[in-house]
Amino acid sequence: MAVSIRLRREGTKNSPYYKVVVADKRSPRDGKFIEIIGAYDPKKPGHNSTLKIDRVEYWISKGAQPSDTVRSLIKQSKKGTTSGERSPRVEAESSQATQEESSPGESAG
Q: What is the pTM of this model?
């Protein structure tokens, strides 16, 4: 089975939003897919994509071919993680975990 990593369009008219999916090359653009590995919002300025880099590398090692747009998103995402920048989602999760650890637990007494 020939597998590709490509964009799946979601959202409304004039407000596109894309999911990065692993799918069979023969399936339609918005059709059946194997796995969702990220998202891309072209209307958002700045860092506008999130990808699971470990899953991308896994599928590429299995022979999946990324589309041109997804290839550029992978390159941007890898560049952002190697330069020491953290995505807003990762920062929010880490700060939330820190707050949960520092807040005292309620005792059931």
A: 0.69
All structural domains of the chain: 3-100 (3.30.1320.10)
Q: How far apart are CA 68 and CA 45, in angstroms?
A: 20
List strands edge to edge, sheet with 3-12: 49-51, 35-40, 15-24, 3-12, 65-66
Burial 57-92 (b: 16+ CB within 10 A, else e): eebbeeebebeeebeebbeebeeeeeeeeeeeeeee
Divide the 109 residues of the chain into consecutive groups of 10 and give the mean pLDDT of each group. 91 92 90 92 89 93 93 89 55 47 54
Whether the Cβ atoms of residue 37 and residue 20 lie closer than 8 Å to each other: yes
